[in-house]
Design brief:
The chain is globular and about 80 Å long. The protein has helices at residues 8-59, 65-82, 86-91, 97-118, 120-128, 144-169, 177-210, 272-278, 281-284, 295-310, 322-332, 348-359, 363-382, 388-400, 411-417, 485-488, 491-494, 591-594; strands at 217-225, 235-245, 248-256, 316-320, 335-336, 342-343, 405-408, 434-442, 452-462, 469-479, 506-513, 519-525, 533-537, 540-549, 554-563, 571-575, 583-588. The protein is α+β, with helices and mostly antiparallel strands and 605 residues long. Residues 19-32 and 596-605 have low confidence and may be disordered. A hairpin with a 2-residue loop joins β13 (533-537) and β14. The strands form four sheets. The protein has a five-stranded mixed β-sheet, sandwiched between helices. A five-stranded mixed β-sheet has the order 13-14-11-8-16, covered by helices on one side. A five-stranded mixed β-sheet has the order 12-15-10-9-17, with no helix packed on it. The termini are far apart. The chain has 18 helices and 17 strands. The chain has three domains: 17-210, Methane Monooxygenase Hydroxylase, Chain G, domain 1 (Up-down Bundle); 217-416, 3-Layer(aba) Sandwich (Aminopeptidase), CATH 3.40.630; 429-594, no CATH class.
Length: 605
């Protein structure tokens, strides 16, 4: 028998071909891997620089933006170059690796586009405008630099919106955590800087007309006293009229809230929900217009009440509180009042919300003190002595904490204000976040809320077979009033039992708004069922209850809602700004703690 064998040369050829393919594949993988690591380093290096641009743009330090942009552009160009060659694009079709490479390429493209299209207008502004250009001189703000900034910020805003859209289109659901987290972090930064640029554009669009570019404007200024809480911050105890005429700001009138006459019926028709939650008070007392947690509504009511008493028609309403003033005093320096008090950033909150009531026991004297503090602080802010960058920082912080609120009587301007934090609107859920509102109104009838401390938390989980989402908001309230508050604090602070609350006790009306489309399944105080008011406003379920705190006491209330399948587990809580910072916690819940309950019937007014 003759044996036939395959010629050895052919075997060698096949072997060499296989080896060559393996080598090429290894080289290809190595090439893409190395470039991916380099691109990752470039993108991660760009993130803090982009954050710096956002911070400096918001605070008015435009002079540093140009250098930061050059650095970001260098990193962006490198990342885009590393992720755009044909070998990279070919690797994107490979299972498992492909989604990671695609996400990285798209992230690099977003940063590259942002650095070349959206951020350069800010650099142009930095070369022509300095933050000192916005400093008031003898009470007048020069409108020309603001008008000059508007078209450049419009360009930046349009380009940033495009970058935000592209960033949020990046799919990280099939990426490894290292890449997914990096891309998500970048997307978050792009979202944030997009919001900052958009806010700057809105500001330069609104400021010229609102500052009287086309003629005098008149605004009602509400000084919200956090020692007696209202949903938007505090009772409007002191009032003022500010006139703006071609950039010149003047404090043209002052009054106490008691000077505004109560009408016999609500000044404007109230909704059924408003009457259910707050009675007729928001429409009858200017002190109560902001029981309602929507500042646009408060502005309408306050404007109408003022007009009914004085005939004064205003172009808008502005709300501020002593905490904002304390931040603004960092920019102006101390302000000396008529009685010799030095009002500083360190003592403003304590002086205006507590000490004044021990110093002056007669309400008229207190009103005079508040009026003097307002007038002298306004003069300091408009004199031109305030440091502009610190002023911008204070205002930015105040807006973010819901302590500076604005409503415009002009429809077009209010439309621009509505989506901003300045509007003080009810929170709206997004595709990624479920929105809650937690609002406090004083029910003591006094100034005990200076001693109130709070913590707010939201937990979420999917506990039901049908996939519906359970969310629970918890509010812990604590009184730090002295043990002998009933006798050691002035009657004006404790209320002296006039409204049925024992002296020294803090009584708070707590109103919790759930996300649209959810329903309330449980509400309790300290683990026990208590009387509640329940209603629905524009699809938002609302629970309201009262909490009494004796000195040193802590109470916890809980409201659980059931939301549709697919509702985001991440949550955001809008809340009343108190005299002191609120602690907010968001996290996952244990289903055993939430429980799987049968939903209660949808609440109705």
């Amino acid at each position: 028998m003759v044996m036939h064998r395959e010629p050895r040369p052919r075997r060698r050829v096949v072997g060499w071909v296989i080896a060559a393919v393996v080598v090429v594949l290894l080289a290809w993988v190595s090439w893409v891997t190395v470039r991916a690591l380099l691109a990752r380093d470039q993108l991660l290096s760009a993130v803090p620089i982009v954050q710096s641009i956002e911070k400096n743009a918001a605070s008015g330090h435009l002079e540093t933006v140009a250098a930061d942009l050059r650095t970001v552009r260098r990193h962006a160009d490198a990342a885009a170059s590393l992720t755009s060659d044909p070998l990279w694009r070919a690797a994107e079709v490979v299972p498992w690796a492909g989604p990671n490479l695609t996400a990285f390429r798209q992230a690099a493209a977003v940063v590259d586009s942002m650095s070349h299209n959206a951020l350069p207008p800010l650099v142009d502004l930095a070369s022509t405008i300095k933050v000192d250009d916005f400093r008031p001189t003898d009470g007048t703000i020069d409108l020309a630099p603001i008008e000059h900034a508007a078209p450049k910020l419009e360009t930046a805003s349009v380009q940033m919106k495009a970058a935000v859209v592209e960033a949020n289109r990046i799919d990280t659901s099939h990426t490894i955590p290292q890449i997914g987290n990096a891309v998500d972090q970048l997307t978050e930064v792009v979202d944030r800087i997009g919001s900052t640029v958009d806010a700057l554009h809105t500001a330069v669009t609104l400021l010229p007309p609102m500052l009287g570019q086309d003629g005098p404007r008149h605004y009602l200024l509400l000084f919200q006293n956090n020692a007696e809480l209202r949903s938007s911050g505090g009772i409007p105890g002191a009032l003022a009229i500010v006139t703006a005429d071609h950039g010149k700001l003047s404090l043209t009138a002052q009054a106490a809230s008691g000077d505004v006459v109560q009408p016999s019926t609500p000044i404007l028709p109230l909704t059924e929900v408003e009457r259910t939650l707050y009675g007729n008070q928001p429409g009858e007392y200017i002190q109560d217009v902001n029981l309602v947690p929507d500042f646009a509504r408060s502005g309408e009511l306050a404007s109408a009440l003022l007009a009914s008493t004085t005939g004064q028609q205003v172009d808008g309403v502005v709300g501020v509180d002593p905490v904002v003033l304390s931040e603004l005093l960092k920019a102006t320096g101390p302000v000396k009042l008529a009685d010799g008090t030095q009002l500083t950033s360190g003592n403003a909150v304590k002086t205006l919300l507590s000490e004044v009531y021990s110093r002056y026991r007669v309400p008229k004297q207190e009103d005079a003190f508040f009026a003097d503090a307002a007038a002298r602080s306004f003069a300091a802010l408009t004199s031109g002595s305030a440091r502009p960058s610190e002023l911008m920082t204070a205002l930015t912080k105040g807006v973010s904490e819901r302590r500076v609120l604005v409503w415009s009587a002009h429809e077009g301007e209010q439309k621009l204000l509505a989506p901003t934090a300045l509007a003080g609107a009810l929170p709206t859920s997004t595709a990624d976040t479920s929105a809650f509102g937690v609002y406090y109104n004083d029910a003591t009838g006094a100034k005990m809320d200076y001693y109130l401390r709070d913590t707010v938390g939201v937990e979420s989980a999917v506990c039901r077979a049908d996939g519906r989402v359970s969310l629970r908001v918890g509010v812990s309230l604590h009184s730090v009033a002295p043990a002998d508050a009933a006798t050691s604090l002035p009657p004006y602070v404790t209320g002296a039992g006039v409204y049925g609350v024992p002296p020294g006790t803090v009584r708070t009306q707590v109103t919790v708004y759930g996300p649209k489309g959810s329903i309330v399944v449980a509400a309790s105080l300290n683990g026990e069922q208590v009387p509640i008011v329940s209603t629905v406003d524009d699809g938002r379920p609302i629970v309201q209850m009262f909490v009494d705190l004796t000195p040193g006491q802590t109470s916890a209330l809980s409201v659980e809602v059931l939301a549709p399948k697919g509702t985001p587990l991440d949550a955001f809580v809008d809340r009343t700004p108190t005299a002191f910072p609120t602690t907010t916690r968001v996290g996952d819940a244990e289903c055993s703690a939430l429980g799987v309950r049968t939903p209660a019937p949808s609440p109705s007014p």
